[in-house]
Amino acid sequence: MDRYAVIGNPIAHSKSPAIHAAFATQTGERLEYGRILGDPATFEIQARTFLSGPGRGLNVTVPFKERACALADERSVRAEAAGAANTLIRLPDDRIRADNTDGVGLVRDLRDNHGVDIAGRRVLVLGAGGAARGILGPLLAEAPERLVVANRTAAKALELAARLGGAVEGMGLEGLEGRRFDLILNATAAGLAGEVPRLPADCLVSGGVVYDLMYGDRSTAFVRWGLEHGAGQALDGLGMLVEQAAESFFLWRGVRPRTAPVTALLRSARKRPAQGPGEGEGE
Ligand code: ATR
User: Fold this and answer.
1) Residue owning the nearest CA to atom 3 of ligand 1
2) Which residues contact 217 (CB under 8 A, 6 or more apart)?
């Protein structure tokens, strides 16, 4: 049987095995999908060993996405642009290809699942780490009126914006004073500490959209911030998680699973008590 896995550290919380098992059942594809606790000292060896043995593909999550991109023999344009990969594919000639499905997962969730049009909108991305890097290119491709990336440490946002050659404006959080956005995406790690980046109270237009790349068993701190500041829609990253998984599944198997039933399954499981750890990140 073809084998796949998600590798990260920590990994016990990962919902990817449940998502891919549901995709396999739905599509009739025969595969096994496990989880691997990545070792920071030997990540490259772990990934290569899995992919040169029974493994046909890997999903990669925090903190190994940059290293996964670097270890591959070839990269998709979107992985190259992000400098990070969440999907590794063993090619027929046994070389390893890196791809990044996070951005397309986000855009599909916003556009197709929630009817949020990015074209012509003023969009703000919070954070300048790996999570932010993975989504800027795909957001730009949707032709927003303006795309701003703001970070606690301004220099990192400026550097990231410069890499994208003028299409994105970078600034520190304090630069947001007096600015207004139709869509604000949280790609920071602030939620892990139950925090929200320090934002001007009026930077979201009334009825605007907030999107937290994280998800949790309860609503995340940023989703709550959105609801308290007039958001028309306040979304967490569970839909993105399922969409990026579907794109990985498609890259590996050539079959596109339906995502809505799987997202609904995860949401209903989450409503039941004692569902494990609090918050996680899109994988
Ligand atoms: P990831 O790969 O998940 O993006 P990362 O590269 O460690 O993780 O980046 C974390 C991001 O969250 C950074 O943009 C960080 O801001 P700094 O560059 O200033 O460190 C941001 N972040 C973490 N905690 C935050 C907080 N409490 N408020 C605002 N931003 C925070």
Assistant:
1) 131
2) 270, 275, 276, 277, 278, 279
Residue 23's domain comprises 2-101+240-269
Active site residue 271: no
- Does residue 38's CB lie within 6 angstroms of at least one atom of ligand 1? no
d(CA 46, CA 223): 36
CA angle (168 as vertex; 165, 172 as ends), nearest 5: 115
Q: Are 112 and 90 in contact (CB under 8 A)?
A: no
Q: Is residue 173 part of a domain?
A: yes
Residue nearest (by alpha carbon) to ligand 1 atom 18: 153
Residue 104 in contact with residue 77, Cβ under 8 Å? no
pTM exceeding the 0.85 threshold for the entire prediction? yes
pLDDT in tens, 242-282: 999 999 999 999 999 999 999 999 999 877 654 444 445 55
Residue 275 lies in a domain: no
